Fold this protein.
Amino acid sequence: MTVESLYPRLEPLLAQVQKPIQYVGGELNAQTKPWDAVRVHWALMYPDAYEVGLPNQGLMILYEVLNERADALAERTYAVWPDLAGLMREHGVGQFTLENHRPVRDFDFLGVSFATELGYTNLLDALDLAGVPLHAVDRDETHPVVVAGGHAAFNPEPVADFVDCAVLGDGEQVVGDMTDVHSAWTAEGRPGGRTELLARLSRVEGVYVPQFYAVSYAADGTIASFTPNRDDVPTRVAKRTVMDLDEWPYPKQPLVPLAESVHERMSVEIFRGCTRGCRFCQAGMITRPVRERTITGIGSMVDAGLRATGYEEVGLLSLSSADHSEIGQVAKELADRYEGTNTGLSLPSTRVDAFNVTLANELSRNGRRSGLTFAPEGGSERIRRVINKTVSKEDLVRTVTTAYANGWRQVKLYFMCGLPTETDEDVLEIAELAVEVIRAGREAAGSKDIRCTVSIGGFVPKPHTPFQWAAQASAETIDHRLRVLRDAINADRRIGRSIGLRYHDGKPGVIEGLLSRGDRRVGRVIERVWRDGGHFDGWSEHFSYDRWATAAAEELAPFGVDLAWYTTRERGEHEQLPWDHLESGLDKEWLWDDWQEALNEDEVADCRWTPCYDCGVCPTMGTEIQIGPTGRSLIPLAVVGAGRPQDPAVGGGPQVDVAVDAAVADPVHTH
Amino acid sequence: MARQPDGPPPPPTVQRLRLRYTKRGPLRFASHRDLARALERALRRAQVPMAFSAGFSPHPKISYMGAAPTGAASEAEYVEIGLAERRDPEAVRVALDASLPPGIDVLECVEASAGGGALADRLDSTRWRIDLAGVEVDELDAAVRALLAAETVVVAKRTKNGPRDIDARAAVVSAAASGEAGRAILHVVVRQVTPTVRPDDVLAALAAVADLHPPLPPRAVREAQGRLDDTGEVADPLGPDREAGSRCQGEPQPV
């Protein structure tokens, strides 16, 4: 089969749209393969704008893993902005991939990574543009199998009508298994058509095929039953977990766009999973256990990535990077390696801990000293006990002051608003904290030239967390608390002018809440919103609360439920939740107990350093914590002297020899 | 007093290289900021020993000039880079060209001659070739004549600060029409004035004087950029540096 390039028909349209470079491909490290040379074709999509989607690590990893297979190819596609989407519809040009501008319609799989539920309307937009029927049951063998992945796939019920499969957990291995299934089915002459293909896929561990399950509802609107409608599919679907991250050093060749993106740096994932036990954090709950990349594994990835990209900053990524068992050594030895090369190293936001200031100092030695970001999340000590992110007010002020004393001029603090049991007083403590931080900071820095930015997000309860039963705060509550906080910060302008406050109103959070904890009935709302023109819901200029509220009111009324039922209603212990058949490994009883402990303001410690508290993941999934220290170290990369050019390099820059691991011990596996 | 970073100042610029590069194929859709990003990263991958500015936020010494607009292709974009160590210009050209994506091709690299003046001063005009598919040569020819006959042609230009009326005619040095199968081609030399008169503005002028409305989006290529010479041609802006360089040949060249 020959697949035509849509580029000749797309090109005249590009002259008429904003930022056309995002649609032409040709990124550094992009891969192209001949269509007919492989059996299985994957289109990988991030359902948001190119500038947001391109840096996504998950998509880059799967892109490389699939393209390394001899029998498969993977190309990328992103959400098309309305200006071009309109022209494409007018001229009959379908959703295309960037590598060869092939029609998405012609691929075997369309894999869509949902980091957030607000991408759902963009999925419908892409399917429609691609000419793929919106509803899974309306598709035939000629259409791609639409696969949802990413964290939101842990409750795919709201998009159950639109996707053929949802994949739970780490994607590295499961995409290979799915490719094998498709390849075998094709080799056998596609027996049983699409239904048989989906049935085979449903037997791959980690793959959930919603159309093979039926849901019924009780009179009070809750789920009465959830049952398979075939006897050859599993009753529960468990997530996939990749062990030994050093065996998966992806992305090896990160994509570098010409266009500007939201992350102008390369990233190395230093560990996966988190057991800090922050009760609001879905990522920390669904990605257990902690699996560290070793210091030498990190060193080689940083080295290879910098050579492959030319980026001048490396982010050391994870859910809580300062918790890596070798982080101090990683920071120091990487900073040593890249001394004098204008290469910056950075951590994402960290816990509030004085050690993290030392780390940041070390990491910023060679590069630009931008701001420092901490995430206390809760305003008061009481609410921080509720969310299990304990730090005392004194420690918090002391840590931030230390940062100012060390020459950081800009500190950003992340908080949430609308947490369970929260009152106005909890939120008002954020203002007290910020004021104290600035007072102490000015004294420590000996200057008034310091700033503190308080960034607040509305809390949205997520599936597979202890807060999955909680009542979400209403938009009015959030807006009220943000208002009193703003007034408190501005009460004293002499201090307040050094404090920036960044927040959004509470309404988008309510819709995110509907989509997060929704069931299959919510699919009607998504489709209605999309039909009424909704898309790019993560962008305030496109998001319309009224459109969502109207659609929810009208589409949910026949079921006797509404927006508030899904969001501000507290769930009971024995209510069947829409995602109960999807296995993150967490024991539901443990989650409930942890929810009760939250209400009692009781803390739970991290199982990396204290005995196991039986969250259930390791025994259920057959996994274990993988942490160091390994005892290894990074030896300095020999810098080749100036004036000895090497082809194709000209020499003199951060030219380095291949890293040699000074291995003295294997990683320590506990549990 | 402004704060200064600790430590010694960065090493000074010891060599300035001037490069001519292209924007071809799909990369004509790159903006000047996209190109700047691509170039800076390619310089790092090619390990060109760049000189950096001082301060808390050191930047590599790169001077961009006269970027072609987004959507326009170019055979003649220019940039000057400052190096902290001397390098053979041709080695830099080859390494950088290999590091840049296909379509951004480095065609020339010469060392700036001492006392030869600023490169920007040698770039005051552009020769454009604008392909107009679906337009008859006669039609374009008549429009070009009408444009050249007019004393001023005011067109509305979109700027950052909203629409602004500019005289597109004043910047046009010469214009001519030719034809190929199914298309007319406009050859036009435009003086680089402020605000810039771009291919779109020239086409707006043709629409104003002769009601010329191409049925398909026009495709513009900057064929040459340089100083306008006495004959109305665009001179090679790297010529003076190349001549100075060849005069110095025989001197030992540090690699």
Q: What stands out?
A: The interface with chain B takes residues 7, 11-12, 14-16, 19-21, 23-28, 256, 258-260, 264, 307-312, 342, 368-369, 642-643, 645, 647-655 of chain A (CB under 8 Å).
